[in-house]
Amino acid sequence: MQLPGEHASKYCVSVIRLNMPTMFSTRALAQSLFSAAITAADPAYAIQQQLTRQGDELVVGSWRLNLARCKRVVVIGAGKASARMASAVEKLLGDRIDAGVVVVKYGHSETLSRIRQYEAAHPVPDEAGVAGVAAIEQAVLGLGADDLVIACWSGGASALLPAPHVGLTLADKQAVTQALLASGADIAVVNAVRKHCSRLKGGQLARLIAPARVLCLAVSDVVGDDLATIGSGPFVADPTTFIAVQEHLTRYQVAVPAAVRKLIADGIAGRVPETPKANDPCFKHVHHHLVASNAQAIAAIAEQARVAGYEPVVWQQPLIGEARAAGATFAAAAVRSLDNKKRICIIAGGETTVTLGDKPGKGGRNQEFALAAAGMLSATRWLGQPAPITILAAGTDGTDGPTDAAGAIADGTTKQRGDAAGVDLEQHLNQHNAYPYFKAIGDLIITGATGTNVMDVNIALVSP
Prior knowledge:
16 helices, alpha/beta, six-stranded mixed sheet, Rossmann fold, glycerate kinase, domain 1, six-stranded parallel sheet, 37% helix
């Protein structure tokens, strides 16, 4: 699947009602539903709708501020959606912006005139991210109580802003990140560790910027939209501790460099300060506003599925845990729904994990999810034919793991087509090697950078 080259807000999503569904037509529908999800979660459109300027007054939700009383307005940001968010802020405020810096993943930049952009690596940080951190620190240096910082924050910010704690190096942070990604730990655990290895995360950027006002516009890529977890919560009181970090590392058997072990030990002993907690005065003038989340993407899929003649069934619980198990569970639910003998679109959002072995192949959590689902579907026949079920699993940011794919699409013929192409489903699944499998049969979903990041979406079209 290749989405249009323009940004999500410009996508024209056309959904056709299917009178006699076929594998091909339901695959096309699944792809158009995913496109609708991306459109709905476009952060630039969301900001345009929610952040307004009424003369000198800046308004978002219940928050209001008279810009005439602000000496300086500085825009900063980080994350996969931050440039897209910054473009909307720039259009609204124009030359009222005095300075600005955003750090985005390679390939996720926008056309900006007053805000500088740095592209950096994700999910493992690099030197470009360090340069971006330095630029942000310089931009907010010396701000006072009469200044305003507008922060554009989204998922990916944790990796894109590597600010090693005193005593750590970039290499230490890279090693910790790689170990955490391979451990199977969820994003809340990963970010708890990152916060305590950083000098900016976990509320510490708020401390640096105080006493200036902060309006943090957030795009959520985490289950429950927890502000303390989105981008490691640089403007949020940190509920985690050095003790909790040590417990996480032990539980997930994460090996970290000696310098990191020493930092954690010093933190537990009180020789290193904790991250800012709820009573810290640095949060007094910080206001958060959630502009986009997975809920908007799910709602858009449900609406368009209904237009296409499918009854939407939205899972109330997010899909989490191991991708392989989640994919099989999702497919099994779709198979069971065949008994209803009506068209159903099962929709779920969330973010699964993959615990990698010693020599993992190439892929991502959504590709592994889809491959596991395909294995389940291959064992099901309906009226002597492959199960009339199409499953799509993809990341709304357009990136699934360290690949150029957003995810993959699977149906009752996936295994059969894989066998014909000379790729073994079970072997590729066991080796966490879903990318080459789906590439061999042409079922990778390729979107490029979408400009948003609101977790993953999972769609099952059941067409008996």
